[in-house]
Amino acid sequence: MSKNLGAWEKAKREGRKMTMITAYDYPFAKLADEAGLDAVLVGDSLGMVVAGEADTLRVSLEQMEYHTRIVAAGVKRALVMADLPFGSFEESPAQAFAASARLLKAGADIVKLEGGAPMVETVAYLSARAIPVCAHIGLTPQHVRQFGGFKRQGKTPEAAARLIEDAVALAEAGARIVLMEAIPSDLATEITQRLSVPTIGIGAGNGTDGQVLVLHDVLGLNTDRAPGFAKRYLDGAALMQTALGQYADEVRAVRFPA
Ligand code: KIV
Fold first, then answer.
1. In angstroms, what is the span from residue 216 Cα to ligand 1's centroid?
2. Active site positions, annotated
3. Which atom of ligand 1 is nearest to the CA of 114?
4. Per-residue pLDDT of the chain (258 residues; tens, 9 = 90+)
5. Which residue CA neighbors atom 5 of ligand 1 most closely?
6. Which CATH architecture is the domain 5-229 placed in?
7. Which atom of ligand 1 is nearest to the CA of 22?
């Protein structure tokens, strides 16, 4: 699939699943692109998995711009999605436009913003001004203080109904993709069936149009913490520690350089 969002809507109609992985720099973005992923997400999760912080709240727009630029440099084919970080877009649609324009100039094809109903006006404003938007609902990590932790959302009938309303309103406002994090599988499936735009899930079951995971969880580079819903496809940390240990041993034994 391509940078053309029309192709994403077509894939949804044809029932083809879409694939996305986070990337924060050139080499991993290039690997993901060459591996055939449909999209790379320059997620503000970089605050946690790259910078070692406890949450995403300290990530700045300048950091997102920098990482978007170095990811875009490695991508020829996949869609590049970039997160609007906490504090860069919530005050007004105009503030969101200025921040989004910076991310598009840095190489993003689409921006992602967190939030439900309060973001509907902003999504409409951006969509009317040449900014493609992905709306992120459910467990939105930028609301971690309000949620009292990284907690699954949409568990009560009232909360589920609110999420359905939010998703429909965001899509009607112009969101081109709706991303749902850590909500019940049947709720994510129902939202997916109601929307004509593609949905991407993370910890939301297999009824969404596509899936996203954090790169460091997939490659086993995250030795601190990984959410229960993530799947590790490689023990990257062990492989790298072995290689680094071999290098250090060879230097100490004067076997390298030969
Ligand atoms: O920042 C991020 O990596 C994300 C994904 C977890 C969806 O928003």
1. 12
2. 181
3. 8
4. 678 899 999 999 999 999 999 999 999 999 999 999 999 999 999 999 999 999 999 999 999 999 999 999 999 999 999 999 999 999 999 999 999 999 999 999 999 999 999 999 999 999 999 999 999 999 999 999 999 999 999 999 999 999 999 999 999 999 999 999 999 999 999 999 999 999 999 999 999 999 999 999 999 998 877 788 999 999 999 999 999 999 999 999 999 999
5. 43
6. Alpha-Beta Barrel (3.20)
7. 3
Structure token pair of residue 111: 């921006």
